[in-house]
């Protein structure tokens, strides 16, 4: 009912709301504050250990109804600063039974353990990558020689009485001709056959 009254106002209506709408919002916030302000009664709340207290059940009902989202909106919206003290009071009453140390430990409990596991896994992956890099560096030769070698082709005479000196790699020997390395003579297009 209360939440429906607030959500019935569309965003445009929130900007152009009437005085009675502003009063309605204030009354709803004061009602929520007063409900949360009721002190716990240990004589009435004699449940089994681990049972949710009345306060916890009220908080759960607020969460189910979406009231916590509305409170976040009112706390963060620049134009809704008039409700800041009401929202602050409601939030402080929501965490009334919790100590700051418990809340901080609750947030870090599982997150801290997961963060530690993630850090260990990342460190292991980094060490493995460094080891692979070192292994690859050891496998490859330290320096690449651009010099393919020079070979004397016996039985093939060059200009004069000397044997041909071949400066390419041996795998290129099959395609050897005396014209290797010479520019082919260009024939003008009109003289081509």
From TrEMBL:
Domain annotation Timeless N-terminal: ranges: 12-152
Pfam family, one: TIMELESS
GO molecular function, one term: DNA binding
GO cellular component, one term: replication fork protection complex
Domain of life of the native organism: Eukaryota
GO biological process, one term: DNA replication checkpoint signaling
Locations listed in the record: Nucleus
Keywords: Cell cycle, Nucleus
InterPro entries: Timeless (IPR044998), Timeless_N (IPR006906)
Protein name: TIM protein
Organism the protein comes from: Myiagra hebetior
